[in-house]
# Entry
Amino acid sequence: MKIAIANDVAMAAEALRRVVASTAEHQVLWIARSGLEAVRLCQEQRPDLILMDLNMPGLDGVEATRQIMRLCPCAILVVTGRPQDNVDQVFRALGAGALDVTATPVLQGLAGGTAELLAKIRTMDKLIRHSGGSQALSPRNGNGHPAGPPAAVNALVAIGASTGGPVAVARILGAWTPPPGCAVVVVQHIDENFADHFARWLGDQVAMPVRAIAEGDELLAGGVLIAKSNDHLVLDQKHRLRYDAAPKDYAYRPSVDVFFHCVAKHWHGDAVGVLLTGMGRDGAEGLLALRRVGHTTIAQDQDSSAVYGMPRAAAELDAAQLILPLDRIGPALRGSLGATAAANK
# Structure
């Protein structure tokens, strides 16, 4: 891959350059010292992947990501010092179109950081090739537990998302409250080391309990559960949530398709499947499986998607009964689950 680096700290940029140069299959295309320079260079020489810092003078990494995804979209990996200390910026960058996040390796002790960063780059390479290259990155047009015993769950909203997903999920759940007896499960493509941060961040955005899923958890009525492993989230026949490494060669982890197929197979109550912005095709076949067994299915529309890959694939398969802008998905959920709520009063 042709890899670009956007980082204003000379030592950090050099560390990243050395990591890329240590491989035979990748090369450094250019190094930008500011977000504005990154936007300009990307338009002149579009790379396959940008290693984007968050904190840069003038135009920061979040806004640089937003402009690049609008003007000359390509894959972006946020690489920044101690991402756990910049949670809000990280999720704004992911919402703007970045694919993932990892920590910047340092020149001292570079070997440890090299392995983690190269693993991320390999994953990005696989995702890009699996999705049909950078052209697949279509730009947009235009915490806690409930008190008392757990309530019975009779309805399930399953949400799948990738690039741009954290902000999209927050907007839907910030404007919609599940009816009594309804559980929400979110499968977001995000590294397991950052999933707990995502759950805490989302919990600050919405007025309902949010927590990451532990092996064997039950569905949570009135709350939001977040997949937190690089293995795939599954729902078993007893409605317990578990993790499974298979299929091991699947590029998208955790897989939306795997979870949607489990819901189609094992969940017999009311359910809605929602497929949001993201690169690639993950979730489309699972959404079709949900539709075939009679569940309501919704895909985000192109104009409101950060990357119109996964929802596009669902539309092409006729997997989505409804294709809606982000702001109309909450009202659609309210309408789809209203009958269930009324029947259980």
Notes: Residues 139-149, 339-345 have pLDDT under 50 and may be disordered. The chain is about 40% helix and 20% strand. Residues 189 and 252 are 7 Å apart (CA to CA).
